[in-house]
């Protein structure tokens, strides 16, 4: 299995100087719950710094939180759940799952994650999807469209495929279902049906809750204007390098919001070097 190649950074889409609003990526995020309100907000936080437009759809409590933060998310649009299909059509990519409850009815007002995820994946199989978090824990892999990137941690991989989370199994499942898989861990493993790479780096500070939601938001933002395997492996690499940069400043004592804010700094450094 190959190691990440720095030359791949040069393959990323770069907005043209004369581009207009909306031309450099539109991302829809479907996530969050009454209990896990922060997860989808971390995805939103990092994505809003990369793409032109983020459509955000969560439970009412989370939508209200984002409304209060409109000064930061100027290009964000709050989308009620009953209107998401219009925005799916418009979006370049959809991220589903961060903070969605693993079980139906965890709290009053929550979605049935399995029903919501499977309905949308079946209805829009040709859209670009990044599937993360709660969605990965309740669906069957057969429902995943070939356009999907999934971003499981090790237990989510085992739950989804009933296999140990090894590099060999990641490659086998990517080939079997013709999807792109980014397995998160001390070493991330990125595979699609033809390619496989290991991405090393990071540190113990990145074990904190929410760092995976930051990564999912980053990968989805990149996927808006890049192909799937490139988005997965480059997103992993940038995420780990941002964590390493934070370690130099504060040791392992940083949180997911710190990581989301460090990613644009690291992207500038990597993409201009």
Question: What would your notes on this structure say?
Answer:
- By secondary structure, the protein is of the alpha/beta class.
- It is 41% helix and 14% strand.
- The protein has 10 helices and 10 strands.
- It has helices at residues 37-47, 60-68, 84-90, 113-123, 133-136, 154-161, 167-177, 211-223, 228-250, 256-271, and strands at 2-3, 26-30, 53-57, 76-78, 93-96, 128-131, 148-150, 180-183, 188-191, 196-199.
- Strands 1-10-9-8-7-6-5-2-3-4 form a 10-stranded mixed sheet, sandwiched between helices.
- Helix 2 (60-68) links the parallel strand 3 and strand 4.
- Helix 1 runs parallel beside helix 10 and helix 8 packs across helix 9.
State the total count of DSSP E strands: 10
Mean pLDDT: 91
Major sheet details: 10 strands, mixed
Low-confidence stretches: none
Number of helices: 10
Beginning-to-end CA distance, first to last residue: 26 Å
What amount of the residues lies in strands?
A: 5-15%
Q: Given the helix and strand composition, which structural class is it?
A: alpha/beta
Helix content: 40-55%
Morphology:
globular
Q: What Rg, in angstroms, do the CA atoms define?
A: 17 Å
Order of helices and strands: EEHEHEHEHEHEHHEEEHHH
- Strand arrangement in the largest pleated sheet: 1-10-9-8-7-6-5-2-3-4
